[in-house]
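Board notes (copied after class):
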Amino acid sequence: MSIRHPWRGAAAVALGVAVAACSAKPADEASGGGAGSGAESGRRAGGAWAQGSAGSESAAVPVEVAAVARRSVASYIETNGALEAENDVLIVARTSGPIVELATEEGRSVRKGQLMARIDPTEVRAQEQIAAVTLREAERTFERAKSTFEAQLISQADYDQALAAREAAEATLADRQVQLAYTRIAAPFDAVVVERMVKLGDNVSPNQQLFRISDFDPLLCKIQVPEKELPRLHKGQPAYLTVEAWPEERFPAKVLRLSPVVDAATGTIRVTLEVQGRDRLRPGMFASVFLEIERREDALTIPKAALSLESLGDTVYTVNDDVAARRPITLGYEEADVVEVRSGLDEGDRVIVVGQDGLSDGTPIRILAGPGAEADAPRRARGQTPAGATPGRAGRWAGSAGADAPAGPTAAPPEGGGGPRPGGRPAPAPAVAACETKQAGDACAFTGRRGEVEGTCGPWPSDPDQTACVPAGSGARGGGAGDAASPPGR
């Protein structure tokens, strides 16, 4: 089982500060300043340790910041609409007969004039041949009637009858030729087959639905806009759409048509947008529409994440000499994840975007990411000494002033020299497992990267709350002398 030792370092430091503060005056009065000097030394050392350790490492709130920048931002009308195709038609049979060929399928693209299906042409072709024979016979009859009529051997009525018979035969042949052409089902325009409604061998009749095809380019989206926005609407006006299938992608659009009338029931005007689907959008999709009404170039903007949620007004926290400063601001247009700032901030100001909840004016902060982030953060992560700093007994880095201050009652770290270290490594899993069934002080061993490591079960140097197998000589509390270092095998 793992044994955890609660860390009482913070209580010890607080008690030390209280004792020094309470004893400074009496000691000064009794000794004429000697004790006061000691208390002063304690206060200076304690202040250095607290500032170098607790103040900069613990009391300071870690935050992330972003700079106020200039960019273009627009105002939008937000609404919804369904996508539809400009050309969406049903292909029906124009003649009767069984389907003998299917040349396409749902989801396939077809070009204008491309064969989609074929109806058995055998019967229609036979009727065409009969009509052709009838026409030839009618033409011969007409030629004889014409000759005899010119010789005035037949009446006008007989001649007209022969002429009508020839013309009727011509019309019959033309009809049979059209019916024969109808046996070939072709695409009327470039499109995608949305639905196939027949199977091979089905016997179809005129006007029976065979296919539904749709042209996805362009796609249309019809929206309703309040009539008060009519003065700001015009053809070609930019917009963009988002859909659930690709929530992070914007699909460009523009105003294609404006309805000439206002719907009296809703007080809106119908606006038709032409959308660039990029081969992803489909008719019937439900889209969120953002119609651009006005755009401001070179506007001051900040991330929306910088806005404080704990204020009734619009406020942000800025960085002011390593402390947080509350700023009321006036907002303008909002777009995506940024918002325009009309007043209250200047270009280059740094606003806190992560960690601002619970802050107040003057709260010390420590910048982890963004402009002005700690230059020594990588050095701390590697356990190296930052420039101009010395390691204290508690394993925290103190500045030069704190390092030079004499040790006082509050300068000493918690008992045992342990305590979390900035950038300290957690105990390796093998070291923790080695003490799961042991008590503190028991001998232990585990296999690290450098081979077999022997030690004693106790608090891990960089995480005193974690019991693990501390290598011999690491200096952990109850595990040897000296300052704890990263053990082998990590």
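Comment from the instructor: The chain has a mean pLDDT of 77. The helical segments are 9-31, 34-59, 122-150, 156-182, 377-381, 400-404, 429-434.
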